[in-house]
Amino acid sequence: MAEQFELREREIFNILEKIKKFPKVILIGGYALNSYVEFPRFSIDCDLVVLDGNIILKVLKKEKFKIIEEEENFIRLEKKIDNIRIGIDLLIGKVKDRLSGITFEFLDIFQDSIIKELVAKSNPRIKINFRIASPEVLFIIKFASLRKQDLRDIFMLSSCRLNKNKIKKLIKKYFSSDLFNIRKEELKKLIISQDFMYSLQGVYGKLPEEFIEKNKRRVINFVEF
Fold first, then answer.
1. pLDDT (tens digit, 9 = 90+) per residue, 92-107?
2. Helix (H) or strand (E) holding 96
3. Nearest one of 158, 159, 149 to 45, comparing CA atoms
4. To the nearest whole number, what is the mean pLDDT of the chain?
5. CA 74 to each of CA 80, 86, 94, 98, 152: distance values in angstroms, whole numbers, following the listed order
6. Labelling 110: which of 31, 116, 166, 182 has CA 20 to 30 A away?
């Protein structure tokens, strides 16, 4: 299993190396999250927000990736190496959350992004400098969906030095009052549930109790205003 993860990460990092010269490409999702959190997780797919999908498509097709799903503002590509599936999702011009209906525009994500070192979880010698969405933007995107994986990611992001004012500003821009209150109450209920703790341990193993309790408080604090 570890060998599969390393092979997948090597290929993803190889692709990132080939496209990092293009200025309008931003990494989001699990790989972006790993550049911020204390306890990184394995991520199967790589999520990229791009202004112009055609440029990146040329690179990916040259690397033998094939389009398997395509719709407005979204293209999914995959390739297999030794029967290991490697997936890349291109979100073109925006990130649209299907559950909430919220659309996060490319410019907002880009303006609040930084070039940061990204280190592979499977092998710390594999690393790259790449443009990554800010932790506050990642928090808000995850908060919009609030699926089980999103909740785990929000929890881990909360250990970072997040800017609460920035989170508040983004929420006010993108969320209606009703949706925000619904998501906030869901989050407050789920974050203290036993089901969430089982979910967290299933991905990260046993985490320090002090870390868990402190992060629970931080998560709630970031959406209390």
1. 999 999 999 999 999 9
2. strand 94-96
3. 149
4. 94
5. 20, 17, 9, 12, 24
6. 182
